[in-house]
Amino acid sequence: MSPSGRPLSAIANGTIAFTAKVSGVPDLILQLGCPGGIQSAVSLPVFHPCVRLNRWKERPGELSFVPPDGRFVLAGYEVDLLGDAALDAFSKSATSKSLPKLNVPATVSVHPSLGPSGSDFEVRLQLNPRFTGKSPAPHPGSTSGLGRGAGFASSGTTAAPAIEEMVVHVPLPASVKNVADLRMVRGTGDAGYAPGDRSIEWRISSREISLLMAQDRGGGVGATASLRGTVVGESEDAPDLEPVSFSNDYDDDENHEHTPNLPKKKDSSAEKNKTLMPSCATVSFSVKGWLPSGIKVESLQLDQKRSVGLGSGVTPYKGVKYLCVSRRGVEARC
C-alpha cells in the first residue's frame, strides 16, 4: 500500500487441501464459486493428476476426480484481488470512490520524524471490525450440506471469521544502532527489539485482539493500537560544529567589552534522524473462516453412477474449512 493508503498490488495464492478417508472408489464433483465468477477470478490454476482437466475447461469451477486415500493438494491457483481496477487507479481521472478497496483484517501505517528532534516514530495498527469472530446468530440455510466447518456462526467460521494471531514487523535502516523507549501508546501487545537487530517485532495474541475489538463498540471503524519508539544512530559524542573564529583585537581607549563568537552546533539533528526512520511496516496474520478472494465451496457431490464399491445408502460426511495465512503479506510504505 502507498503512503496514502492506496493499494498498489494485491495477489493471493490459494491451495485446496483435500483429505479423503474412504472405502471403494468414490467419484466426486467439487463445485467452486466466487463473486464475479471463477473464470474471471482464478488464474494460473494447477491440479492434482486425479482431476479431469476437460471437465474444468468445459465448466470452469467444477472439479471432477477420484481422490486418493489420505491428505493431498487437490488444486492451487492465483487471484489478483484488485482486478482490472488496479490499472484504472493510476489514471489522473481516478477518484477516491473509484479506487479499488481491499477488505483485509488489518492495515498498518508508519509516521516518522516525530518529536522535537525528529527521532521518534509511531506505528499504528487498524483492525477491521468484521473479524471479531462473533456473530449474533447462525444464518439459516448456510450449511449447504458441507458440515460444521461452513455452517455454524461460532468463532472462526464463514459467518464469523476470527483473527488467530497477528505480527507487525518494522524494518529498520542498517545505520540504526538501537531503539530507545519502545512503548505501547495505545492498545496492547508484546513489542521486542535487541540492539543491532534489523527490525522491530510486535506480536498481538488472539486474546489481545479480542480485547481490542471490544473497544469498537459497534462503531464500524474497528480498533486501533499504536507503538512508539526513538531511534538511535551512531554515537554523537563529537558534535558537529560550525567553523569558529575569535577576535582578540582591542583598544585601550575604547570603554567596552568584546564578546568572542561562540561555537554553534548545526541544527541538523532532525535531518540526520530522517535517514534513521523506518520507511515501511508489514503485517502477518492468520484468519479462520475467511478467504480474501471470496472463493468458496458451493457443493461436494458423490457421483453414484461412476463410484464403485461404496454400497447402497452410503452417506459420506462432508466438511470444509477456510483459512487465510499471510506472512508479511500486507505492506504499507511511508
TrEMBL record:
SUPFAM superfamilies per UniProt = Second domain of Mu2 adaptin subunit (ap50) of ap2 adaptor (SSF49447)
Region Disordered: list its residue ranges. 130-155, 233-273
Q: Name all MHD domain ranges.
A: 1-333
Give the residue range of the signal peptide.
none
Superkingdom field: Eukaryota
Regions of compositional bias (Basic and acidic residues) in chain numbering: 255-273
Q: Which Pfam families match?
A: Adap_comp_sub
- Under what name is this protein listed? MHD domain-containing protein
